[in-house]
């Protein structure tokens, strides 16, 4: 390579150093594991490679800083999927991933991005005890400070070197706060990106946890079911009327999205009541039975469209498994098991049934199997 091939870039160092969770005065170099080095290189590519301005071109300080911290959707998902790469397996906990999932739940509920240290400690502490992993205890200060190395998190009110002592001495009125970086929060406000992030975090870090209970605890229950909150089953009715010999009854008020029943009949007629996964036509005394499943659920938080291209014709078993995110449809229209990508069968498609690929991508994201989380770009 000739000297003329080298291009000098003028870019503020502060955003890069902040994203890497180091002080603005670099006084030493630290050896890191290969996986952590790869994450840092990816971050530098994000912060510098695509957005830096060559010397000689006009730029303002504010514009350069804004460009320097711009993240893409795939950068965010890559960072979420590699949180533990630099941590020995025996030392890994759910603390960082749980904190990020909790932070996403705050965005969903409209709460502020940054959380004061004392509020953070009060909310995260019980979550760490319940879902942080066996024998790990609750140490909220660990994710509060260590998540900065992910490039997704920031701490305000204390510098890096004095953060530990500042947290220990912080009073209830302390202005130390932490939360997702602004550009991360902005990306996570996009429905598909948010679904991908939640699905990826659950699939990558919480295989040993009751994910339904975790998401419910965080106020994200809709992301545990493809139909959304409206798809949740009614509570089991407890108790019986022993005197009457029958179960008791109680009035229930509910709100569910309207469905166009003509579309339901149309999808069943198109496939002649046959399941698009297994091909079974379930026979009953009065004919055959199948169910129409929305690919991107109509219920909150999914808010999918009620149209034929967002419907599948499934048998009851595969409808339950589809809604419970047991399997997904890949980009080649194969049905695969979510936990290990095992092929189940090709999806059966009628020539007159054009399936909305964006709806399929959304469901795939809920399963933690988006194209970015699977590593393709």
Automatic annotation (TrEMBL):
Top-level taxon in the UniProt lineage: Bacteria
Stated name of the protein: Uncharacterized protein
ScoMcrA-like DNA sulfur-binding domain ranges (all copies): 74-222
Pfam families assigned: DNA-SBD_ScoMcrA, HNH_2
Biased composition (Acidic residues): 232-241
HNH nuclease domain ranges (all copies): 275-330
Region (Disordered): 227-257
